[in-house]
Amino acid sequence: MRLEDVLKSGAPELGVPLSENAAAEFRAYYELLMLRNAEFNLTAIKGEEEAARLHFLDCLGLLKVRDFKNKSVVDVGSGGGFPGWPVKIAEPSVNITLVDSTEKKVNFLREVSEKLNLPAECVHARAEELSAGNMRESFDIAVSRAVARLNILSELCLPLVKVGGAFIAMKAADSDAEIAEAARAARLLGGGEPKVFEYAVPGTYIVRRAVIIEKLEPTPGKYPRRFGAIKKAPL
User: Fold this and answer.
1) 213 and 166 Cβ atoms separated by less than 8 Å
2) Low pLDDT (below 50) residues in the chain
3) pTM score, whole prediction
């Protein structure tokens, strides 16, 4: 199936309306992703139907579990732009910041921003470095599709979220132990109990989890630690 047809049939299943302009932007994003993939190692997924389902619709599920309209959003460990770019394309009112520690991937994110005329801040930095500056507790929502465990991601992301906001991590359906493990970290970082929302990726048998941690109190100043310490002794 064509990318546009997959999105047109799948997005309504998630309750996410897509404009004709959004479909055209997803097409342009996909073409650029495939063009730069060999150079930047952005994705193992090949083919437009697979990309539309496993990248685009997968990420659009976040719009099903939280209101992103007019929100400031930081995507931590964005890589090829997931989930940040799909969220921005589907909900243009989002003020998006895309963060990655690999310079060549950030260069790709900037190219997408320029060629698709999508306003964004693309930052080459480690997530824990951002919390030492003016980005600390400045975002309504932090999102991450990174592969790190949730207790590690929580220490990287929650310090960036303002009180009243939330951190949303994309996880697999078999993540019960990981979510339970992260409850202590969430509390120490000013967050609430992790809440799990499940949704099926349209056209697949894949069940995705969006794990939401509400920011209830300011994160203590000693967090986040340096990444070596976070990885060696997760909260």
Assistant:
1) yes
2) none
3) 0.96
